[in-house]
Amino acid sequence: MKCQACDKMYSSAYNLGKHHKRQPLCLEWIRLQPGIKDFIDDKFQLPLNDLETSELDTKCFVCNTVFSNVGNLNRHLDTHVICSKWSMYKDLEPLQAYNKTTDCASEFVAPKHKLCHIIWNIFLIDKELQTITEIIKENNIQYIIGIFPDEETYGNVFPPGIDHHVMLYHGHTIDIDIKMFDEQCAKIEEHRKNRGNIFVCCNSGYQRSIPFLCYYFVKYHPNEVPSVAKAIDLILPQVDKANYASMRDMYVFSTELLLQTHLEKKWNGIVA
Question: Average per-residue pLDDT in the chain?
Answer without folding.
Answer: 75
